[in-house]
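Subject: for your reference before the review

Hello V.,

The reviewers asked for a structural picture of the protein, and I figured it would be easier to keep everything in one thread rather than splitting it across files. Below is the amino acid sequence we used in the manuscript, unchanged from the supplementary table.
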Amino acid sequence: LAMLSYLEEKYGEEFKSIEYIPAERGYNDSYNTNILIVESQDGILVNVREKLKDPGLYYDDYLNAFASEMIDKKIDYGDIENIQFGKTYVNLSYDTDIVDLKSPDFSFVNEIKGLYVIISISGKSDEKILGELYDLYKNVESLGFKKHVFKVAFGGDYDKSKKYVTNYFRYGIQTWNQYDESINELLHTVEKNLSFEEFKNKLIVIGD
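And here is what came back from the structure prediction:
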């Protein structure tokens, strides 16, 4: 595929094709996109996109995905009961490149515009799990980033949760309950310095 060749030539490394998702066709579809999902040799998922109106013009999220993997190692999801998947994502400033990211002097705090914590929990929430999530929320806050998004879904389809969490750059364009209508609770906040009670009040019940 040309999209795969583009990525390998741009970054000088090999990627494995995982899934190709052709753009939806229909009336006024020029802004719809073809998407190729690939995996780097380090196991990082990357999305390559091509708008129908610009055939042969590709863009990708490899830099954000690479940086996300580095930040993800700083966050421990292991203490959360009933967790299925948990992953961290970041959006970099526009002038960052792969050489910057691989430099030992790279400053994440200065170069990251936003940090996203995405978590899937099996079953429903309870006081203990919410307490564990709050501890993680406070730990993430202590990292000092300007903006962070904390998003947790309870219940829902296992396979859909896996896709949503492990490739948020692809599936996070939809709200979680739009992507998977079977989730039963959702906790979503972008606010900082919440008390535990304020944090718990961000939890909403989906559906019945």
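For the response letter, the relevant points are probably these. The mean pLDDT is 91. Residues 127-141 form the longest helix (15 residues).

Happy to draft the paragraph if you're swamped.

O.
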